Amino acid sequence: MPEKFTVRADHRACHAVPAIPAATGASPAIVADALARPLQDLRISLTDRCNFRCVYCMPEEFFNADYAFLPRDALLNFEEITRIARIFVGHGVRKIRLTGGEPLLRKHLENLIEMLAQLRTPDGRELDLALTTNGSLLAQKAQSLRDAGLKRLTVSLDSLDDSTFRRMNGVDFPVAQVLRGLDAARAAGFGPIKLNMVVKRGTNDQEIVPMARHFKGTPFIPRFIEYMDVGASNDWRMDEVVPSSEVVRRIAEHMPLEAVESNHPGETAERWRYLDGGGEIGVISSVTQSFCRDCIRARLSTEGVLYTCLFAASGHDLRTLMRGGKTDQEIAAAVAGLWQVRADRYSELRSAKTGGAAAPTRKIEMSYIGG
């Protein structure tokens, strides 16, 4: 396949971008990739900006005052986002998750949610419309998000200890404000609400059991995520990964657990519930237990670049197609062509230090395409 090249002034993406196959007409409604994985989940980044500088995602030494974020005219507008979402829904997408950066920083976000909430699958069903946030603005936004049609929320919460939380978010933000946001989200009618805790050994792994205990018996589901080698700025090391098996063991020593079947195929989290009926937790084992074979997710960057893997080194420019006058049918055919040749399985081919084969060292930043 021929390649074209894009060069940006920062480390976000200086890489070859494979050319999109020419559209040849209407494409099949439901598409599967080269490994027979259907396209069912689309994650849309609304901004590359964030008001946190988390050590595992946007560390201050890279994302500082000199970092060049995308200009406003580079971002997809709400009409463009809705248009491309409609095309993906036509290919089988049933779930759309809005991410960032921090998506609540995008002005008038509620208007976009209202637009996306009007989309329907070919058989007339509503979409599973979700959003991931760091929770810093949730106290002010929860009710308006719910009123606009948002169905589910996931909130990042790396510690309940205020000093640890402030240190990890890199901007001295208090955990109490995020907890107020959780209360507001619950009052607005969201639930159950998932809480994502990225576990980094020596940084916040002492918070695993307190986190589980605090939310046991509540409408919140803590999910413990293995510290991942996403992007090139977080100085990832394998010895800082706490395997999910260890997370489960630590919690079960205090509050016995049993495994639960997944909610649906392609679910990233492995579910465990308390034997006494006090709810459940989840673990996401993207390092030690790859789930590539079930991955049904595509990711769209805030400037309209399609990535077929979280660990990708390059993407495909859909914004140029939209702004270049291509029809929906032509864009749909291009998307189908891209997905049908997809063979990504980075986690299964991770470098020798994690037990796999060599893997590319240059990967797109998580803050650019969402988690």
Q: Would you give an account of this structure?
A:
The protein is an alpha/beta fold. The protein has one domain: Aldolase class I (TIM Barrel). It contains ten helices and 14 strands. The strands form two sheets. It has a twelve-stranded mixed sheet. Strands 1-2 form a two-stranded antiparallel ribbon. Helix 3 links the parallel strand 5 and strand 6. Helix 2 packs parallel to helix 3. The longest helix has 13 residues. The chain is globular and about 60 Å long. The N terminus is likely disordered.
CATH structural architecture: Alpha-Beta Barrel
Q: What is the CATH superfamily label?
A: Aldolase class I
Class computed from helices, strands and strand pairing: alpha/beta
What is the overall number of helices?
A: 10
Strand content: 15-25%
Runs with pLDDT <50, length 5+?
1-28, 351-360
Q: How big is the Rg?
A: 20 Å
CATH topology category name = TIM Barrel
As laid out across the biggest beta sheet, the strand order is 9-10-11-8-7-6-5-4-3-12-13-14
Q: What would the average pLDDT be, to the nearest integer?
A: 87
CATH class: Alpha Beta
User: What is the oligomer described by this structure?
Assistant: single chain
Q: What's the number of domains?
A: 1
